[in-house]
Amino acid sequence: MADSSPAPLRWALWLLLFCCCASVGAASPGPELHLRKPAPPGNEGLCADWAYRVPLVTPARCMRANLEAAAQRTVQGRRIYHRDMRNPDAAIRVLVVGGMHGDELSSTALALQWIEQAQSTGSNVQWRFIPMLNPDGVFAKPSRRTNAHGVDLNRNFPTPDWKREAAFYWEQRTRRDPRRWPGPHPLSEPESRYLDAQMREFKPHLIVSIHAPYGLLDYDGPSTPPPKLGRLYLDQVGIFPGSLGNYGGVQQGMPVVTIELPNALQAPGEAETRQMWIDLLRWIAEHIKA
């Protein structure tokens, strides 16, 4: 049926309909507009970001860790955070590092869980925790192993004959795997330089480096390695050019326990975390000397 309404009336009706639809659309945005609010400043903002990305990390758990910002910044300008557990009577210094590879999110979660254990467990140890060495890799979309320059930080430490050995390993053994590029020269990255500075300044008697997802323990350096931590058993996989285990454990005589959690995205539960912590403290008391 033809519309017999006068032309001005028809235009007024169309204009009214358009305005109503626009109003409804503005009041009810689609799912793509429901974005997470920007994080507030300070540690509250930091912890909101970490909880958003890292499994088993809540803002409250992160806030309880009382993380301190280091002066060093990453390639993209992010802060690296640490936590010192100062104990003037402690004879042993232990450095715990998580998040060296940005796509191994469970490593940061375990480091934060262990900060809680250290706060509530007495020990003859002075702890320094670096829960997330590679925040640029963690917060990439998607998270990635390397830092923002595409460097595998665990191949960027100055082991002997690095230029020849690291290049040969990357080209021949990994077939130029971009996830394992050692970088243009040792300590080329601000993140690896920061960790090297921590080793020289803090002078740890032990380094615990947390990774995933092979589900085992590795060990480099003097002394007797731990047979197990929780359900993870010792299975030494060898040394690699530019790795932290090679650099700290073999070259500097600074024992390095490398924890390979079973899952990069799923952190161990509270009971497993505590058992690993108890096993670590027992082994330190028996085998690590000042």
Summarize the entry for a quick read.
With 290 residues, the chain is of the alpha/beta class. It has helices at residues 7-27, 42-53, 59-64, 105-120, 135-138, 162-173, 190-202, 244-251, 270-287; strands spanning 68-73, 79-85, 92-97, 125-130, 206-211, 216-220, 228-229, 232-233, 256-260.
Describe the structure.
By secondary structure, the chain is of the alpha/beta class. The chain has a single domain, classed as Aminopeptidase, CATH 3.40.630. Helix content is 38%, strand content 16%. It is built from 9 helices and 9 strands. The protein has helices spanning 7-27, 42-53, 59-64, 105-120, 135-138, 162-173, 190-202, 244-251, 270-287, and strands at residues 68-73, 79-85, 92-97, 125-130, 206-211, 216-220, 228-229, 232-233, 256-260. The chain has a 7-stranded mixed β-sheet with strand order 1-2-4-3-5-9-6. α4 (105-120) links the parallel β3 (92-97) and β4. The longest helix is centred in the N-terminal third of the chain and has 21 residues, at 7-27. The protein is globular and about 45 Å long. The termini are far apart. Mean pLDDT is 88; it is low at 1-5 and 7-41.
Element-by-element helix/strand order: HHHEEEHEHHHEEEEHEH
Taken together, the total number of domains comes to 1
Q: Main sheet: which strands, in order across? A: 1-2-4-3-5-9-6
Which fold does the CATH topology refer to?
A: Aminopeptidase
Quaternary structure classification? single chain
Mean pLDDT: 88
Sum up the overall morphology in one term.
Answer: globular
> Describe the biggest sheet?
7 strands, mixed
Helix content: 25-40%
Low-confidence stretches: 1-5, 7-41
Tell me the structural class: alpha/beta
Could you tell me the radius of gyration in angstroms? 25 Å
**CATH architecture, please?**
3-Layer(aba) Sandwich
